């Protein structure tokens, strides 16, 4: 893709070279750079990508995106004020905005993301839908798996896998969305249609200085869901922070929990070593649910998955 088209939507300054060049790929790790690539300098927590420009050039980088002043080099150099944010849009542009062509479900919260994601996936597939999944450790669609070494991949990996899902005719992609991913723009160009909030408890306070910052990061997912395209959010109303997530939603909200005000409610919950049982109540209709999963948290995870299944038109039968 030509560099000028790749930069569409990004505020930048040309430092040297020209934009009339073809870019073969995007990398933020100089070791992953191949001939014709754009190297994005990311200022990380342990190191700084600007220190590895020379290595990127040796590996064949054709253009460099910086956000700090560097020495003059013989390559096209562009500068932005926020390379993480720019990289998300670069990746989305490079892969043709694949998330816009599927239904994307983002699940966030301190606990329950993984189980809820897999429950939704299982229900959708049982209903005949093709799905892709992006977790914190790996991504999977059809017979293809991509392993990750850290919590939520960076934007180029996310967009690359979204394109793989699209090519494999996935109708839905389910994604565990961490606070780090939201705060560091790793998913800022993903066109989420549905957001799920499970719960919020003290976690990642080594990164977020307090619970308020942690919550603000999580709320970004809900703020990303735009009206239209049958978009909506799903909220656990038994959680202390539920009201803030409901308030952040610009789309219809479906609530779940044990309290009487929930749209999707569990009653007569029974849990033993063999599994969990409860009466599912919604819109005046009741169903008995039996699961092999144990624990009250499993009941909440199931309610979130059921809420999406019902909204997506899947029969509770």
Task: Describe the protein.
This protein is α/β, with parallel strands linked by helices and 317 residues long. The chain has 2 domains: 3-94, MurE/MurF, N-terminal domain (Udp-n-acetylmuramoylalanyl-d-glutamate--2,6- Diaminopimelate Ligase, Chain: A, domain 1, 3-Layer(aba) Sandwich), CATH 3.40.1390; 98-311, 3-Layer(aba) Sandwich (UDP-N-acetylmuramoyl-L-alanine:D-glutamate ligase). It is built from 9 helices and 16 strands. The protein has an 11-stranded mixed beta sheet, sandwiched between helices. Strands 1-5-4-3-2 form a 5-stranded mixed beta sheet. Helix 3 packs parallel to helix 5 (155-167) and helix 4 (113-126) crosses helix 9. It is elongated. The N and C termini lie far apart (48 Å).
Give the topology, please.
Elements: H1 3-6, E1 13-16, E2 25-27, E3 37-40, H2 53-58, E4 63-66, E5 76-79, H3 83-94, E6 103-108, H4 113-126, E7 131-134, E8 138-141, E9 144-147, H5 155-167, E10 172-176, H6 179-183, E11 194-197, H7 211-224, E12 232-236, H8 242-248, E13 253-257, E14 264-272, E15 275-282, E16 285-291, H9 296-311
Parallel strand pairs: 2-3, 3-4, 4-5, 6-10, 6-11, 7-10, 11-12, 12-13, 13-14
Antiparallel strand pairs: 1-5, 7-8, 8-9, 14-15, 15-16
Helix pairs in contact: 3-5, 4-9, 7-8
């Amino acid at each position: 893709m030509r560099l000028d088209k790749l930069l569409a939507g990004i505020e930048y300054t040309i430092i040297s070279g020209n934009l009339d060049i073809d870019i073969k790929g995007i990398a933020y790790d100089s070791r992953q750079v191949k001939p014709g690539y754009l190297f994005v300098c990311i200022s990380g927590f342990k190191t700084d990508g600007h220190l590895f420009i020379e290595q990127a050039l040796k590996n064949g980088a054709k253009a460099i995106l910086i956000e700090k002043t560097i020495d003059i080099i013989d390559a096209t150099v562009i500068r932005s004020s926020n390379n993480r944010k720019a990289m998300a849009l670069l990746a989305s542009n490079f892969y043709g905005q694949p998330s816009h062509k599927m239904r994307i479900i983002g699940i966030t919260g301190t606990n329950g993301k993984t189980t809820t994601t897999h429950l939704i996936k299982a229900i959708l597939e049982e209903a005949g839908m093709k799905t892709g999944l992006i977790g914190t450790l790996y991504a999977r669609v059809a017979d293809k798996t991509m392993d990750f070494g850290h919590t939520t991949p960076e934007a180029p990996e996310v967009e690359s896998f979204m394109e793989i899902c699209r090519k494999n005719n996935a109708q839905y992609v389910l994604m565990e969305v961490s606070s780090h991913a939201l705060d560091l723009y790793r998913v800022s160009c993903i066109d989420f249609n549905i957001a799920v909030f499970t719960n919020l408890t003290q976690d990642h306070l080594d990164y977020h200085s307090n619970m308020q910052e942690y919550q603000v990061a999580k709320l970004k997912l809900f703020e990303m869901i735009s009206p239209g395209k049958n978009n909506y959010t799903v909220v656990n109303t038994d959680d202390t922070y539920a009201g803030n997530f409901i308030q952040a939603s610009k789309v219809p909200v479906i609530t779940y929990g044990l309290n009487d005000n929930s749209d999707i409610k569990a009653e007569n919950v029974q849990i033993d070593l063999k599994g969990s049982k409860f009466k599912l109540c919604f819109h005046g209709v009741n169903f008995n649910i039996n699961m092999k999963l144990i624990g009250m948290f499993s009941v909440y995870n199931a309610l979130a998955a059921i809420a999406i299944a019902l909204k997506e038109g899947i029969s509770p039968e």
